[in-house]
Amino acid sequence: MAESEPKIGIVGSGSWATAMIKMLGDNEVQKHVLWWIRKIEDLTYVKTYHHNPSYLSAVELRVDETNLYTDARQVIQQADIVVLNTPSAYLKAALREVQASDFAGKIVVSAIKGIIPDENLIVGEYLMKVYGIPIEQIVVIGGPCHAEEVSLEKLSYLTLAAKVSDHAEQLGKLLRNRYINTIISTDIFGVEYGAVLKNIYALAGGICHGLGFGDNFLAVLVSNAIREMETCVNAIDPEESRDINASAYLGDLLVTAYSQFSRNRTFGHMIGKGYTVQSAQLEMNMVAEGYYASACIQNIIQGYGLNMPICDTVYQILYNKQPAALEVKKLATKLT
C-alpha cells in the first residue's frame, strides 16, 4: 500500500478487533494501522510478542509497523477511517475524551453488534445523535463471520453496509484477502439491527439447548426468529428494500445460533443449565451482546407495538428472572 493510502484506526482490543488487525496485517497494510488497546500491559505484550494475551492469543499478529496507543482520541484524530470495535456497553467509556470534531470528514465504521445501553440506540444512530456524524460517513460491518474462524483463516464473508457505496468498497479493499470476501450493501439500519437481534435469538437457542431441547426444536426456533427479525427491521426502516434471506440477516443468524464459537449461544446455554446471569457473566471472558441488547430491544418492540415472542421470552428470563423452562414451554405454543 502506498504512503498516500488512508490510515485505519482500530478502537478496541477484543477478539473481533484482533481478527481485524490480523486481516489488515495479512494484507500488508500494518504500517497504516493505528490500534487502541485499553490496557497498557496488553499493549506492551502485543508490541513485544506479537500476540494479544487476552483474546485470540494463539494468533500471530503482524504489528512491527503498527502504531499502538492507549489513548483512543489519538487514534481517532490521526485516522482517516475509524473502526469502532469495542463491546457496545463499553463504547461510551472508550470515547469519553473524544470530541465531535475528531470525527470530522472521516469514514466511521461500526463493527459493534450491539445497542448502546441506556440509549436504546444502535451504534450508527448513537454516532449521528451524539457526535453529529452524517449517515453518509458511516459504514456498518455485518456477518456472517466469527473472529475465531478468521484467526484460523477459514473462508469468511463480511457484509459492508453504507449509504455511500464507495466508502464500503474502500473498506472492502483493505479487508479482502484470500480468506475474506466482502458483500456490499446500502442497508445500514437493517444490517445493524439484524446483528443485534441475531444475538438475542442465539441466546434463546442456547437457553433451549441448555434445557435439553434438540436440533428439531432449534430449527423451528430459528425459522421463527428470521421472520421476527424481518418484522422488526421492516418496522424500523420500511423504506429500504432488503432480502431477509441474505447472508447479513439469515446467514448471520444461522452462524450465531449454531456455532461452537458463538458467545451468545454459550451464554444462553449456561442460563438454560441454571446459571444466574451474574454467574454466567463471571465465567465468560467475553461479552455476550445479546444480554444487553435484550433490554434495549424490548423498549423498541413496545414503542413500535410489535409481536416478537422470542425476544420477549429472553427478556422475561434474563431481566424478570422468570424460570427458563416455564418461559420456553409457553414460547413453544406460539411457534409455527
What features would you describe in this structure?
The structure is a single chain. The chain is of the alpha/beta class. It has 2 domains: 8-186, Rossmann fold (3-Layer(aba) Sandwich), CATH 3.40.50; 195-332, N-(1-d-carboxylethyl)-l-norvaline Dehydrogenase, domain 2 (Orthogonal Bundle), CATH 1.10.1040. The protein is 50% helix and 12% strand. It has 15 helices and 10 strands. The chain has helices spanning 15-26, 40-49, 72-78, 91-94, 123-131, 147-151, 165-175, 188-211, 215-236, 247-258, 263-272, 277-283, 289-304, 309-318, 324-332, and strands spanning 8-11, 33-36, 67-69, 81-84, 107-110, 115-116, 121-122, 138-142, 156-162, 180-185. The strands form 2 sheets. It has an 8-stranded mixed sheet, with helices on both faces. It has a two-stranded antiparallel sheet with strand order 6-7. Helix 2 links the parallel strand 2 and strand 3 (67-69). The mean pLDDT is 94. Its EC number is 1.1.1.94. It comes from Sphingobacterium suaedae. Keywords: Lipid biosynthesis, Lipid metabolism, NAD, Oxidoreductase, Phospholipid biosynthesis, Phospholipid metabolism.
